[in-house]
Amino acid sequence: MAFTIVSQGTFTQPATAVTQYIPLPSGVDYFKTFNLTQYATTQSPGRCVSGEWMGGGLFADNDGLRWTKTATTSAINIDKFSTSTASNGFTYVNVYPAPQASLTGTTITNATPAVATVTNTYSEGDQVTIYNAVGMQQISGMTFTISSVSGSGFTLLGLNSPGSAATSFQVRKVAPVMPVQPQTYFITGITQAAQGVVTTSQAHNYVVGECVEFTIPASCGMVQLNNFNQPQSKPPIITAVTTYTFTINVNTTGYTAFALPASTLSPTAQLFPTVAPQGQNAMFNPITGVQTGYNFLQVPFHSALFLPYMILPAGLLSPGGSASDVIVWQAYKMETGTINAPVPS
């Protein structure tokens, strides 16, 4: 049965690879990625060089076929992304998912990073919202990216020593993305440094050259970072990124120290510090043809991300690729019938 390409494109991962969100025409039946960078290399511990997704319920979320190149040879292996919990596959989103039923957990540690104990069926990289956290109300309502997931708990890499342990909590798995990209995130830490380093509760997809705006309540300190306090109200610019942190071009050394408020301040004090995207910092010289600042070959800035779209997580063995990888993607539609009800040829 023939397929027709209905959309295609390419992107280059930044130095710290991030999840990519690909807007698509409606009714995509087949989606494929090609990692042009890794096709030409042989690296340890091996790389995903191509991935395939098919609609009609053939693959669960975060899955698909994976083509990997071994570490020491050019041999190609084929398996599914779900074969390894260290990688994530394709997720096709055509409706905004409703939050899943809540689970009741027993503890969240006051550690770096914090670890939650709860019987669950979550997957690596899922987004969850925690609430009713007894002893840790200052995070109740925040959304986190989870890692080191087991059937009995998970790690919150975006939460370091929040001040007290939680003795019980509830948690729900939530939709993996907001309709605007890049999205707004909860802040869990900011350093006092010549260039402040900000930690978010989720694995963010910000890149170097993006402008951001802070909303930090007085209960958290470092209110000097709120944008109306900046010179000419100019938004800070991101100068470096990791999975959960980014560095800004603002000297926060003399600012009030940032700290999440005590659990006892809930619900009387405003608790949630947030950061939001404010566009890109880029300049183009029409004479030399040179662009500086934000790299538009990387993550696009969307004023809105409309349904449907494909989520391509980053990773050595994931379809989004790793640092500086060049990825080509193609979306297909069946020429006759649908993947659920094909018309015989």
Overview of this structure, please?
By secondary structure, the chain is mainly β. The protein has 3 domains: 3-95 and 307-334, no CATH class; 103-173, Beta Barrel (Elongation Factor Tu (Ef-tu), domain 3), CATH 2.40.30.180; 185-285, Beta Barrel (Elongation Factor Tu (Ef-tu), domain 3), CATH 2.40.30.180. The protein contains 1 helix and 25 strands. It has one helix at 36-39; strands spanning 3-12, 20-23, 30-35, 47-54, 65-69, 76-80, 91-93, 103-105, 107-108, 114-117, 127-134, 143-145, 147-150, 153-156, 168-173, 185-190, 197-200, 210-215, 238-241, 245-248, 274-280, 282-285, 290-293, 309-312, 326-334. A 6-stranded antiparallel sheet has the order 1-25-3-4-5-6. Strand 13 (147-150) and strand 14 form a beta hairpin. The radius of gyration is 21 Å and the shape is globular.
Largest sheet entry = 6 strands, antiparallel
Strand content: 35-45%
Shape: globular
Radius of gyration: 21 Å
User: How many distinct folded domains?
Assistant: 3
**Strand runs, count:** 25
Low-confidence stretches: none
Q: Number of helix segments?
A: 1
The chain-level structural class is mainly beta
Strand order of the largest sheet: 1-25-3-4-5-6
- The sequence of SSEs as H and E is EEEHEEEEEEEEEEEEEEEEEEEEEE
Mean pLDDT over the full residue set: 87
End-to-end distance: 8 Å
Secondary structure: helix percent: under 10%
Outline the fold blueprint:
Elements: E1 3-12, E2 20-23, E3 30-35, H1 36-39, E4 47-54, E5 65-69, E6 76-80, E7 91-93, E8 103-105, E9 107-108, E10 114-117, E11 127-134, E12 143-145, E13 147-150, E14 153-156, E15 168-173, E16 185-190, E17 197-200, E18 210-215, E19 238-241, E20 245-248, E21 274-280, E22 282-285, E23 290-293, E24 309-312, E25 326-334
Antiparallel strand pairs: 1-25, 2-24, 3-4, 3-25, 4-5, 5-6, 7-24, 8-15, 9-10, 10-14, 11-12, 11-15, 13-14, 16-17, 16-21, 17-20, 18-21, 19-20, 22-23
